[in-house]
Amino acid sequence: MSRPAPAGGGFRSLTWVADAGGGRPGRPSPPPVIPGDHPAVRGPGRALGPSLDRIGKAAGQRLRPAVSSPCSAGVAAPSVHRVHSVRSVRSVSRAPRARSHTNPGGSPMSQRALVSSLIGVAVVGGATAGGIAMASTGTEPALENGSARYTAPSGDRAGSLTFTVDATDDSGVKDVKVVAWPARSKLDPTEEEMRHVEYATCRSTSDAASRCTYTLKVTRAEAAELTPGTWYVSALMTAEDGDTAFAPHAAGFDVTG
């Protein structure tokens, strides 16, 4: 049974520019964003992917959008190296069994807003530097076997990204959300912030398991916008009974310009 991703809003690609004095203690402040369509932005602090206006409201801080100039011609698309993947994550949050489990309010971000953030997410088994597996009983929600395949644009042909992950819970899988971000931004999204990012499309493989996929087309200009350095991908699964599995560092990868 296929679970199509809900339709997203307009394109949003903003730089996170935190105003002084705000944010949570001990970590950079994830910024809110003024809603609207903005071109992608260059710079080490850029983190694309979440619906930033909603994340900012959760963080209680203001953010001003920063708009870059168009990409200069002749910039080569970044390449990906030194993958660090997490094969299994079972970080569980229990919800009351009697609650109603409808989709969170608000529209998810558009596909294009994730283009630059999800490019190059790790391929499990390819250049893998190590994995982590967390023990659990069979009844807890889990995200396992996360993998992605990125093909860089070539000539007139667009590139592509396909991210897949296996999600399981004894009650069934409701949805999976994903976002990737550059380590230099120190974004480290929380589970609450992950509720405002984009859905993968999930297909049931059994009563308790689903394979979830996220696919994007990537242009040469979009590939050139990636922040060089280490990137991480975060994932949040919600089960049909409301329990969740959160993988803050589900995978890691390096991007070089």
TrEMBL record:
Give me the ranges of the annotated region Disordered. Answer: 1-50, 78-110
The molecule here is called Predicted protein
Question: Which species expresses this protein natively?
Answer: Streptomyces viridosporus (strain ATCC 14672 / DSM 40746 / JCM 4963 / KCTC 9882 / NRRL B-12104 / FH 1290) (Streptomyces ghanaensis)
